[in-house]
Specification:
The protein is α/β, with parallel strands linked by helices. The chain has 21 helices and 22 strands. The strands form 5 sheets. An 8-stranded parallel beta barrel has the order 1-2-3-4-5-6-7-8, surrounded by 6 helices. It has a 4-stranded antiparallel β-sheet with strand order 9-10-11-12, with no helix packed on it. The protein has a 4-stranded antiparallel β-sheet with strand order 15-22-20-17, with no helix packed on it.
Amino acid sequence: MPKVHVTETVLRDGQQSLIATRMRTEDMLPICPKLDQVGFWSLEAWGGATFDACLRFLKEDPWERLRKLRRALPNTRIQMLLRGQNLLGYRHYADDVVSAFVERAAANGVDVFRVFDALNDLRNLETAIEAVKRSGRHAQGTICYTTSPVHDIDTFVAQARELETMGCDSLAIKDMAGLLTPAAATHLVGAIVREVSLPVHLHSHATAGLAAMCQYKAVENGCQHIDTAISAFAGGASHPPTESMVAALRDTPYDTGLDLALLQEIGFYFKSVREKYKRFESEFTGLDTRVQVTQVPGGMISNLTHQLREQGALNRIDEVLAEIPRVRADLGYPPLVTPTSQIVGTQAVLNVLEGERYKTITNEVRLYLKGWYGRPPGPVNEALREAAIDGEEVIDVRPADLLEPELETLREEIGELAQSEEDVLTYALFPDIGREFLQERAAGTLQPEPLEVADEEALVCGPAPTEFKVTLHGETYHIHITGTGHRHQTQRPFYVLVDGVPEEILVETLSEVEVAPQSASGIVPRGRSEAGSTRPRATAPGDVTTTMPGTIVEVMVKEGDEVRAGDPLLVTEAMKMETEIRAPIDGKVTAVLVQKGDHVNPDETLVRIEP
């Protein structure tokens, strides 16, 4: 048995899992010389959510980060996570975009491409893997591990064989939710090693507290590569600690040969770095054995919590966690990994909050049921599919086969803002935030979100209470805030339970400190909150509203249009998922009160229809 090799994840998945991908390049570069000395098999440093976070929050060019890391790590393979035909976004891109992205990523410094598909539809890996091989880089085919009535060891072994046939250089088992148990790891790894000649890598999140044991059992059964994270960014929703696994394997036939003292020095560096990012810590990144029942990864729980908190419905989290397996079953048991975790989770939230399953169906669920994400692992709920796609044809081919080449069109659209092919690809992956980033760069106005909460914002930097007791004139009342309405001038409604009895309280503000409202990760920039909006509350049957707070991404009607009940009017985005807002009645559009980019809340009238 050869020694075990280690892939270090602190610069990508470790920090993505624990501080919402907010680590800046300036905090990575000082420790790179020591990381480069360790002798890791690879250092995962790019891909996943890092590209999006660089543009959206850090205002860094992700390509420039990659180039800087390449120069700072001359002796270490740089590894990235690639979502197959989705690349780093949330839809399938045309083959020319996928090929160009892989070629540029390789040219800028990526050595190892870990390529996966959320549905384990291996057709969605073909173009990316072929592009990696053309670039002379290491193609790592990936199986997303999950459990369901349609997933078993034979299925995973068959996928491993197919990945070997596709020309992959190694094979990764991606246990993104931390579902593996030591027994399951023993049987799965053993079966794959017996049937496939490729080196096997195990990527397992420590959410349930089992990943380190799973890795050891996997190593005993032929796994030669494990993913770990330096201790300061290990555990919980991240991975087993690098130092601990190196110590556990020392003086065994599987000894990694890595210098524990050097690793500890690196760990202390990252401990101080993590202190800078306290603002982005989540209470749901620790040990949580519920994942073994719900299959909900830690990052997904954080998103669900944010969605429900914005609705004043955090007390319904258990209902949502119970609804997720039902939605997952309706969709044919997809593994819960980006983007399917968001697709399933957001739909579950809608089902719970609206009190009626699938009253509103997100665009992503509609596309999924049409086959635009690929082939579901198991049969879907046909009644749901019929309701969602409204008679449209279900595709059965590789989705990208139906996409026309788009790179030239995208290059023309972004025009002179793109100073390089990399800029064009940035725009291709994220048209809105990519264009915004390139515009701000051209104007010299790039400004990252603050690491520290401003003094006046410190008053609300902690979550406001939603359940408490009030004593008034000697009487104590149990108050539970279930929701808030839109503030109109100085008045704002609050929906509460007083000793279990629902009440609406109208609060009139006489004085206040101007603060920024909170978001999932801290403070929402001024101008994006509900404060100052003049949209009226919905009162009439033709007043169109949204179920969840979000952003308008498309307005599909104008004043004077005649519409029928069920016609699409708007598209909103919440938590990276889009939902069509449809007409509640037949009639004429008499007012459109929103435009693209507006932030909206559930009780606001967005469009007015008169019968």
